[in-house]
């Protein structure tokens, strides 16, 4: 596995810098015969696209994806799919200051430490712009899932912005697409809107929590021990810019639970299907899916590009202040939702193919009750 | 990367089941010429060993590691190191009931779904017994670190049991080794002791939080984008039994922080070294180490093997109750501390070797101040 | 993929040195539910075992394999299979001279260059003893093939010793098991026997050619572009000690062929099966199996451990002569036959699992002719 | 390692089809700070480019490479380098017949077996056009070698066309670049020219032998056991279209050698350098470089696209004849020379980085002779 690829049988590699000519994704190992159109990928890219509303960065990118290989007559051929996105609105002038200063909270200093040289324009490779390539590839992963495990539904949403969590009692799937925050709780979305506008006005930014639910995942998916489904999801999530935690199911909440509370009782329903009385486990036991909803949750730090001055040094070692005047996201977690969904789709598709390889098609172990 | 190996240049593979004849670890890619003795590995294994005090399981295993290859005349040869641990106290009789029932919170059901058949004795491959092999390999990883980055110190400790967190103001490194809980806060260790005994008496178990700190990590370690240091740590941690979350630095705490609070100001100290005013980032920016302490935190669910009855079904689909009468851990997080340390050591050693391969020996970019 | 493992979904790792306590093979990614007994693996190991006749080395090893994990109640569980072989007849006294001198044609000098230190006893890791572990793993691979592609038959044999090739017109499969050389040509086996005894008497050794044929391989196996079936076979073969060439089908013979002679005409036989008029391709086109016999051929150099003095230097740089007085193989290619078979079985099983993962069960595209 | 990537630390992935919009290469793991210009890569591409003389295909492609990422201010940044080549002279009309018929000796049938559907235009992914991407990446690999092991020189040449081998006594390095066949023997190049024109006239094609020599490879390179330098080279070579054998050093010639003839005597020369009396081994012992010239030789089958009718069937299963009227190569081995060089450069660079990762900078174990 190379350092710029992720996945085992279905392998995503991305390439490109924020202000280079283009970015792209190569997806290798895709099953043949899957219908793929650029418009299908564009659908997901448009959800991540910057400049769509006042709550996200004003950088304007078309983010138009072109498929250069691996698809013929509208179907995958089993060869690598190259998805290219040209960079358009690069405005290099906004970023010249970065050349001379290390921005606190950014990767400027660490790339300099590691590589000695770096493409400083817009953060180069460390820019969240790279995530557009993931979203395109995630579109292909969804098409694969649709083909081999059509029961799977992947849904991402915000559960908290700053100190304002949603109220789980108000959770409504239909609400998620109706607001620019992927907020499933209608009662809080206005407060979030006001709060983000306040944050933007003071030139600051705010953290958030994103959750992704994969329902309909067949039981038996995941490869213990070192490719456990939860481990694969954790690795995938933690590669997304600004992510500082990954939780599965109850996550950090298990610390204060007793064993008698935490384990999910098992029962059989009338048609022979196995069900559970609760889902503390987040749909994964021993690294393998249980058939319940797979629940992954990530904390996303507030963007470090803000108008409020931060102390730093120049590349000459001279003390300085950093104020980022360019375009930024007051709550970068909003645009992370489609990215997180894409990574879940990719990890699931990869593990489904591995399962099929090692074990064969998914078996149904439901009990038939007479 | 196979499904039972982890790492890229320094690759750990483990094998073996809880009640098979033996378990073991194969470590491949180790640099030659590193001094390794079985006693060095035994030192770390003894920390994890069960049956040492009343707060952990009473299974008694010598956990004596034998090195079968890769070490000659007391030094590594650069070939695979095989570390074997015979299983001794297997007591199969305790576990016969598992054969017929799916234990809630365990991997019984999911292994059955995935593989069709399973080694049900003591959880087979899904048992935490496998983690002994990791600890042995972690001992080698520490020796590698000592050789190529001797500044690194890896320290694990408990920060919370149930609803009782430590008080960070009382944090004392010297306290950690003085109590059976790896508790760095002398003021709470007695309460923890009482609480765990209470939990044991009622036949229940409790969750906990473990933190690992790696200090002295040179800046520049980690391989963006898909082998970021935080992603590698997240994957490694999430493969440990019972882990339900991984946090880096402030972790879930970043959700309620503003950008102006969260990013760590950079400054130069007199000798030309770069320092930071805070460490919200947990020592990692853009997937690369900053030179600050690397902080990883994991939530560990309460053990599911308890004396309190849980509802389940048999492998015939008949409703039943499960009570685990065997030996168990009231707070399994205690024994997870040495395992978590081992996984951090392995991930760091792997990334250091990758760095050396791609870029060469660690460079010092400190500024010289006249 | 680590440097001591081979394979992608079905991954073999070996460990151990010639004169360490043991050697072993770890096979990861095996499908569950496959019947495996130690006696099945022993069957193949006994074919490779030294000391069986006067044509091979007199080192006596029981080569008794023990399965330590991954098999339960006689069936694979889908977890790593550890196969351990204790070293018994180590006779370290034979090899003390190696410590001080670099043996020409051996890996002594290159290991010293690479690692600085080395386990010099019997060649350490570079000894052909390691191939016993491959043969054990090959036994599991054969059982996997029997389960998922039972039409496959893998047969290895010698086609040339020194300047004495077999006559292809006399080729008789039934002859192969009847002589200690795996010779398929009854008319030459006596000459080989005499020749090898002559070589042994003068303390020299001789090269040989081994061919492996896999018949019944379903069409469609192999993963273009960089895991082509021929590339996978070439890599696997070239890891065997003393192998200096790998040919597929006509191999080096294609150099003097015209395109009109070399390509195999395609035709349909009555039952709708696709057949070919010849098999210059060795059963592989574009890296994918055609359904014809897969033919792999390897040249094996004469063993370098001989009684005839060779010039070298000591580890102090002093000119010296090397005479290897220990036990050796006059024609080491004889014992390479079971090893080559094992590597073909492993490569095919791996590619069959990958095929199933990416594409699903093997499809039958035969034409039905009314 | 994905099925369309090769390498371990330095990983090449290629993508694209013969008649899609573009092909490309992604090179990941490149050290930072290496000078790379498009013109450097173009230099090597121009050597492979079709349509340059009457001995190769008349397809005209500019084969102009564009670097889209990973290089900034003329130097590598350590991030993935994307090299894109647009397809220009695609002439789809030449290839419509392929849609309905399986061409003997081509991958048409096997891709159909494997994938069910295929991009039939010009062979799609199985076309030798893909090798242009390898040559571009090979240019970067050469720059890496120049940086970390500047002693290395990689030289490819033809040693045989049809039944006409070169005479090794006439071998002259300076001759290689002076003729369109990379022929090192001035006495035979005219005969080759005539012979190829004859072959072209009768609409046939002819096989050939290509050898690559890497001189100046430091001793100690290669990763036993399953990433031996010879195994890595064998795998890399066998992925090149039309290659049917790989030999190291004496290759198939070792079959008729005795041990006393085959092993290369070792001696010390005045300055303390270790030398050998011969190079039967091809510069590799135990999978590790000896410091001598590394010699790899490949047999390349005659192109299957010829004007002479071959028997086949249609995709409906109807018997038919195939005559390929498009442009073709009478001796495709000519254009394979730059491709083989590129693959050797990539394999060596990868193993050098792995060596540095596991062991550190190359050590000099020469003896100092007073």
Any key phrases for this structure?
homotetramer; alpha+beta; 7 helices; 370 residues
The largest sheet of chain A, given as strand count, sense and whether it forms a barrel, is: 5 strands, antiparallel
Please state the overall shape of chain A, judged from the principal axes of the Cα atoms: globular
> Structural class given helices, strands, pairing of chain A?
alpha+beta
Sheet with the most strands: spatial strand order of chain A: 1-2-3-7-4
The amount of helix of chain A comes to 10-25%
Number of helices of chain A: 7
The interface involving the most residues is between:
C-D, 120 and 119 residues
Distance between the termini of chain A: 49 Å
The portion of residues forming beta strands of chain A comes to: 15-25%
Counting copies of identical and different chains, the oligomeric state is homotetramer
Structure description:
- 4 copies of one chain form a homotetramer.
- Chain A is of the alpha+beta class and 370 residues long.
- Helices cover 25% and strands 22% of the residues of chain A.
- Chain A has helices at 38-48, 108-115, 131-148, 189-201, 229-238, 259-262, 333-359, and strands at residues 5-6, 11-16, 22-28, 65-69, 71-72, 75-76, 81-86, 153-161, 164-165, 208-215, 243-248, 266-268, 274-276, 284-285, 288-289, 294-300, 310-313, 319-322.
- In chain A, the strands form 6 sheets. Chain A has a 5-stranded antiparallel sheet with strand order 1-2-3-7-4, with helices on one face. In chain A, strands 9-8-10-16-11 form a 5-stranded antiparallel sheet.
- Chains C and D meet through strand 1, helix 2, helix 5, strand 11 and helix 6 of C and strand 1, helix 2, helix 5, strand 11 and helix 6 of D.
């Amino acid at each position: 596995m190379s350092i710029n690829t992720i996945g085992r049988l279905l392998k995503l590699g991305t390439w490109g810098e924020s202000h280079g000519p283009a970015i792209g994704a190569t997806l290798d190992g895709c099953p043949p015969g899957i219908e793929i159109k650029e418009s299908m990928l564009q659908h997901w890219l448009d959800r991540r696209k910057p400049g769509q509303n006042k709550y996200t960065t004003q950088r304007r990118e078309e983010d138009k994806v072109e498929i250069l290989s691996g698809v013929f007559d509208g179907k995958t051929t089993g060869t690598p799919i190259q998805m290219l996105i040209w960079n358009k609105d690069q405005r290099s002038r906004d970023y010249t200051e970065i050349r001379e200063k290390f921005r606190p909270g950014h990767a400027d200093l660490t790339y300099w430490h590691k590589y000695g040289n770096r493409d400083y324009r817009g953060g180069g490779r460390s820019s969240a712009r790279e995530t557009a390539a993931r979203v395109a590839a995630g579109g292909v992963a969804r098409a694969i899932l649709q083909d081999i495990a059509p029961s799977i539904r992947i849904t991402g949403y915000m559960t908290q912005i700053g100190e304002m969590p949603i109220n789980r009692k108000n959770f409504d799937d239909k609400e998620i697409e109706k607001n620019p925050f992927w907020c499933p709780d209608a009662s809080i979305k206005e407060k979030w809107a006001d709060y983000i506008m306040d944050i933007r006005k003071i030139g600051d930014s705010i953290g958030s929590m994103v959750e992704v639910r994969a329902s309909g995942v067949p039981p038996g998916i995941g490869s213990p021990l070192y490719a456990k489904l939860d481990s694969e999801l954790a690795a995938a999530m933690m590669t997304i810019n600004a992510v500082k935690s990954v939780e599965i199911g109850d996550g950090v909440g298990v610390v204060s639970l007793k064993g008698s509370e935490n384990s999910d009782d098992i029962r059989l329903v009338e048609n022979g299907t196995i069900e559970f009385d609760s889902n503390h486990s987040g749909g994964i036991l021993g690294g393998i899916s249980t058939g319940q909803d797979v629940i992954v949750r990530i904390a996303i730090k507030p963007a470090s590009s803000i108008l409020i001055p931060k102390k730093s040094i120049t590349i000459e070692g001279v003390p300085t202040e950093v104020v980022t005047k360019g375009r930024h996201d007051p709550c970068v977690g909003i645009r992370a939702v489609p990215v997180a969904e894409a990574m879940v789709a990719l990890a699931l598709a990869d593990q489904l193919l591995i399962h099929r390889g090692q074990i064969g098609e998914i078996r149904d172990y439901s009990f038939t009750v007479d």
